[in-house]
Amino acid sequence: MRYQNVIVGGGLAGGMVAQEYREQDGDGTVLIVAREDHVPYHRPPLTKEYLRGEKPEAEVYMHPAEWWRNHEVDVRTGVSATAVDLGARSIALSDGEPVEYERLVLATGATPRTLPGAQSIRTLEDSRALAEKLAGSAGHLGVIGGGFIGVEVAASARMKGWEVTMAVPESVVWEHLFGAEVAVYFQRQLEEHGVNVNTGTKELPAGDYTLKLAGIGVTPNTELAEAAGLTVENGVHVDEHLRATDDVWAIGDIAAYQSAVHGRRLRIEHWDVALNQGGYVGRTWAGKESGPYTTVPYFFSDIGDWTWFEYVGPGSGRADIRGSMADDDFVAYYLDDDDKVTACLGVNRSDDVNEAKELIASHSGAPVG
Ligand SMILES: Cc1cc2nc3c(=O)[nH]c(=O)nc-3n(C[C@H](O)[C@H](O)[C@H](O)COP(=O)(O)OP(=O)(O)OC[C@H]3O[C@@H](n4cnc5c(N)ncnc54)[C@H](O)[C@@H]3O)c2cc1C
Question: Is the domain 2-111+218-285 a CATH 3.30.40.230 member?
Fold first, then answer.
């Protein structure tokens, strides 16, 4: 069997390659090999609206199943790629004959780290199972870990009337991401809405927990790439064009890409990055893109329906905070020693975040006025 374009991984990054390729008039054959039993879907709702029962499952998908058929994209769900032969330009599948390709993209995503006795959340099934429990009679949820997943699930469970206790290793929730001065705002949101936040610890206090959830990070799914002989070190190494070899690309959560904007290697586990990297490869395959990948990483998170933020970067440095945290209306610019903007976080400040994104993209990094 032979396809011109083969995509391993049916998540957002993989789905975007096929979508953009077709939208840019790419007319070659396209196969998506998708381990899960679903056509590509969005994960952000799994800790937010879908988890709380506010968004139906149909709205979680990138497109309904017939969209892929109508666009002549073969999505083989419930099938894994088990090996890549770079020399023969073929992949082996868990189910069926090997497939030869002209171009291959690896978009295999990541797997959550687990803790005994605690659930994790990555797939639609994980979220559906937790949603059913949260919709039942209120209990006590223990959350181990203070990353995005932990905070978002804590807020959603609290909105469903559950008692929620968190164990967070940092001294302030998200301090490791945004610095204490900014992070206090997010911790206050949790506490004001009744979440018990225990900082400086990886252990939940003794208590009766109905459920425990571990939000302790993910490991990129790089086994396939490594076994194929590609360079893997905290992700699959790809160049400024997201290429690992002349005919193999890697994108999304697994990609450790050489950023033309930052002049260093980045691996970013966020929705917008998967979206844009997938789109970039789809355009490249359709012959509509030849320059390096230059989109500045952007991400967002919602804490229940209490607050939300957007961030561009990634960067570090002194935080210059403007606006009012008390009014949920502020922006934090992260400035280096020359007062150049390396990153920006905004709460209800999309225009400022977009402006900072352009500054970072243009390399000018000039301080904002
Ligand atoms: C619950 C949750 C909430 C999130 N919320 C946000 C948010 O609010 N904001 C934000 O910016 N980001 C968020 N993210 C992160 C974002 O969803 C991810 O960065 C994005 O999904 C990465 O896309 P991907 O396509 O690289 O990987 P994935 O979405 O993980 O897709 C990869 C797919 O490949 C499959 N696969 C793996 N190996 C194989 C194989 N050998 N053969 C075939 N298929 C294979 C996997 O099963 C998976 O279906 C969230 C993530 C989760 C889990």
Answer: no
